[in-house]
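Quick one:
INPUT:
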């Protein structure tokens, strides 16, 4: 047993090894000491005396709970499972490391925040003094979205701040990442060869089954793209090593181009508290939390992506504004859309589990329920005024064939386990119905058999029972021992009774148990077929999932605008800023009604493009600066803004520096250039 443990530990020396032993996961040696301290487990020992081995463990059904605590503590965990049926194994049950779980590779629903993306990133540094670009790639393993980009080396930290990955891979010989990055991010050192250009290209080509990456929009001869590809190769190499399962859902490497998005450096993001507060790093109290009126997990994550990447394309911004305006003007439509979306499950993450073979029958039923919501949702969007709403309506693929198959096959309340049956509807498969009827008829047959044996033997309290160890049996109390017929074969002795079997009962037991086993096997086969059909429709459903998320975000922005009396900003391609009765979007909501006093901001044209704001400490200068920056950001994600008339020149950069308090009035500035 311990040799098996040592072999498994060599596979993942830098991770805590959770070693499956029967109904428990056990940890040994230093792993046990670490886990006992982190998880509050009792530290015991295997063997005694000088050779005692520290040991700690927990029941197998508590795995996800304890994994969550380990991952949140910034620790890697390797799960070593029994990969053989103990009943069929000859000798020691074979065990293997089936997955290595790290903060950036979490896919289990119980360990993920449904409202937030969980990114694994990798960075390749460039020499800023020589003008060399840096490369970065990031993947959301729970959905399969894989993106990469090249940036000026000096901007890499800002891009990491924008992505906010849970884990970041860097080469073992690379310089440490600056402390300015979020301390919640785990940094993992990887061999330098994993970041080499040749290794990356070979890794990516093998995974995608392509000779080059040109089909995804990459030009490897460009220095920025070459660096991005190196980072992407490192990500994929790490996933292959840790996941030990299919990565088919990671089916494209998407180029990210900064030309269409508003740039915000890391310090400004923190200062503006766009996605998290400075004080405790929580989502609550940030701009994102205030804006989030979505009703689906996919919508919430997409809103987070919009807030992290405001648009600079004025036509795209206006298209979103047109949609929000139409929805604000039709509150019943907004309410209907959100009501329909409440029946939508997290399709993006469900499809990833389908692609990797980890989807449960319940996951498939959730896909079926989501598909049932689509016709009504599509009908609500028919013949709308805004171009974007019409495009979204056209993008909803009803997947009629898959929906029909799932509805016909699956019961309303599916279990999680796929091997124990009970999730295929009666009438879906004739052979399955026959096997079930054979099994369900057991109660009636046994009742008749018991009555027959009571009449035959004259033993009034004779009973026929069943348990998983001994199967079917006839139980007779010792008081009637003399009436036992010759064909009763003793099977078990109890304190006051004996248990017997007869050839007829044994034959029926084999027939019934075989029927149960065959029924479960057939259900599993049908489940695999359904899962494969869902996988075949994955790309169609992924496109629909993106559409549903957009509808959710736009409806949420419209609901927020209507409830908070926000106005539509006029977006112009000039350096101008005219905000009347502007309000800080966060303070206006979190503070008591009427506390925040609206104010104006006029810049550009005759008013000049630079405003110098002075005043005593604690007079509201920082609040004013943040307010203007956040209103600009809101307008450029497509949201209405907390102001009356507003004209906003599309910015390509926001810089907000909040200086420390001094005895001299502090000048602060928000600048944008276009």
């Amino acid at each position: 047993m311990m040799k098996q443990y040592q072999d498994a530990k060599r596979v993942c020396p830098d991770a805590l090894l959770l070693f499956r032993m029967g109904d428990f996961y056990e940890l040994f040696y230093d792993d046990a000491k670490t886990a006992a301290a982190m998880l509050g487990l009792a530290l015991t020992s295997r063997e005694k005396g000088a050779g005692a081995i520290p040991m700690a463990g927990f029941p197998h059904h508590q795995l996800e709970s304890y994994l969550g605590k380990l991952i949140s503590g910034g620790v890697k965990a390797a799960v070593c499972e029994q990969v053989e049926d103990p009943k069929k194994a000859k000798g020691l049950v074979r065990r293997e490391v089936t997955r290595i779980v790290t903060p950036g590779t979490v896919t289990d629903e119980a360990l993920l925040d449904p409202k937030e993306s969980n990114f694994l990133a990798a960075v390749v540094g460039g020499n800023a003094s020589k003008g060399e670009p840096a490369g970065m790639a990031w993947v959301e393993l729970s959905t399969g979205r894989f993106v990469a980009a090249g940036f000026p080396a000096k901007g890499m930290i800002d891009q990491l701040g924008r992505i906010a990955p849970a884990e970041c891979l860097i080469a073992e010989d690379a310089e440490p990442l600056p402390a300015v990055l979020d301390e919640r991010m785990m940094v993992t050192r990887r061999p330098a060869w994993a970041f080499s250009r040749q290794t990356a290209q070979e890794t990516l080509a093998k995974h995608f089954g392509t000779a080059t990456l040109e089909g995804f929009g990459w030009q490897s001869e460009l220095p920025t793209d070459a660096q991005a590809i190196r980072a992407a190769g490192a990500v994929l190499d790490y996933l292959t090593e840790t996941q030990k399962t299919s990565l088919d859902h990671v089916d494209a490497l998407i180029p990210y181009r900064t030309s269409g998005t508003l740039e915000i450096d890391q310090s400004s993001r923190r200062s503006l508290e766009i996605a998290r507060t400075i004080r405790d790093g929580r989502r609550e109290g940030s701009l994102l939390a205030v804006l989030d009126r979505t009703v689906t997990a996919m919508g919430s994550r997409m809103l987070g992506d919009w807030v992290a990447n405001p648009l600079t394309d004025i036509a795209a911004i206006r298209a979103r504004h047109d949609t929000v305006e139409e929805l604000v003007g039709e509150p019943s439509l907004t309410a209907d859309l959100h009501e329909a979306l409440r029946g939508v499950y997290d399709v993006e993450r469900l499809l990833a589990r389908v692609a990797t073979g980890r989807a449960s029958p319940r996951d498939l039923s959730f896909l079926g329920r989501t598909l049932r919501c689509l016709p009504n949702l599509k009908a609500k969007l028919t013949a709308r005024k805004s171009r974007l709403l019409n495009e979204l309506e056209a993008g909803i693929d009803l997947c009629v064939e898959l929906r029909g198959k799932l509805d016909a096959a699956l019961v309303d309340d599916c279990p999680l386990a796929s091997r124990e049956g009970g999730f295929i509807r009666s009438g879906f498969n004739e052979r399955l119905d026959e096997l079930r009827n054979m099994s369900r008829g057991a109660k009636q047959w046994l009742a008749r058999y018991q009555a027959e044996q009571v009449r035959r033997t004259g033993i009034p309290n004779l009973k026929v029972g069943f348990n998983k160890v001994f199967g079917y049996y006839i139980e007779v109390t010792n008081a009637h021992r003399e009436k036992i017929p010759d064909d009763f074969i003793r099977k078990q002795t109890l304190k006051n009774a004996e248990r017997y079997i007869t050839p007829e009962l044994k034959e029926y037991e084999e027939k019934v148990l075989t029927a149960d086993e065959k029924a479960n096997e057939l259900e599993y086969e049908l489940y695999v077929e359904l899962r494969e059909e869902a996988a075949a429709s994955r790309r169609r459903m992924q496109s629909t999932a993106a559409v549903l998320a957009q509808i959710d975000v736009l409806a949420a922005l419209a609901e927020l605008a209507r409830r908070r009396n926000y106005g539509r900003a006029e977006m112009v391609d000039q350096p101008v800023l005219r905000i009347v009765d502007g309000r800080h979007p966060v303070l206006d909501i979190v503070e008591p009604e009427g506390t925040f006093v609206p104010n104006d901001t006029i810049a550009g044209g005759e008013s000049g493009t630079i405003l110098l704001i002075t005043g005593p400490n604690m007079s509201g200068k920082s609040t004013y600066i943040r307010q203007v920056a956040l209103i600009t950001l809101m307008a450029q994600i497509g949201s209405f803004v907390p102001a009356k008339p507003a004209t906003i020149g599309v910015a390509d950069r926001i810089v907000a520096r909040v200086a420390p308090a001094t005895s001299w009035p502090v000048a602060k500035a928000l600048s944008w250039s276009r």
